[in-house]
Amino acid sequence: MSVYYRRFYRSPWAMLAALVASVPAFYDSMMPTQATWATWMYVVSGVIVLWTAWQERLHAKRAQSDDADTYTWGARPVEERLDWFLGASLLLSAVLPQSNESRLALAWRLAIAVLMLYRLVMISLPLFTRTGLARLLAMGGAVLALCGIGFYWLDPEVQTLNEGLWLAFSTAATVGYGDVVPSTTASRIFAVFVVLLGYGLLSLVTASIAAMFVGNQERKVEREILRDMHKQLHTVREEIAELRAELKKSASQHQDSDPPPPHT
Domains of the chain by range and CATH? Predict the structure, then answer.
């Protein structure tokens, strides 16, 4: 197996793309007429998730000892078993009835959406913790833009894209002005996930800004401490040099004052 192939299937982007691509299919199932692309989106996403889980299983087997019998189901992490379940659930969601026609199908897809949100957070957590303020702002703007497009698509009361963007921001910030509100079941469920995702992302942005100011203040205090330490070290060096000079002077005077040894 080549290095490039290992990097490809070990990368989280395939799983991220598959899970994100299934989100429009979830909300399309609550529309009056389901689009054909939504069904295929479920199928493609489920296949990618199952393929990624299979590749992870093969990698875990290679990491075990030469005895293949020592590899058991319980030895695999929880995320791998969750990936198998999510992949099969996405394929099942493709054949279920419309969510607006069956409450059981809606409850099933909603439970899967919660698990998908958890898996998305677990996969993307290293991407957020290893980035700076500029990338966090870019990601926050992209998420708010996608959420605004989602509100504009799902809610007939949202007449313009600007209203969708404003509703996405006010929902993610949990301010709730009330001038524009979700009016359909699909947009209300979408608002729940916007709060969970958007509020967390906005918290990261505000925390990064606060950390930047705190870091500047800490660096200023550190520079002042280092400056005082340098002054104190300089003073100590001068005092040590004076003590050495006095010791040399005292030793020289002591040698001059000692009488010469008697001759035998």
Answer: 1-120 (no CATH), 131-255 (1.10.287.70)
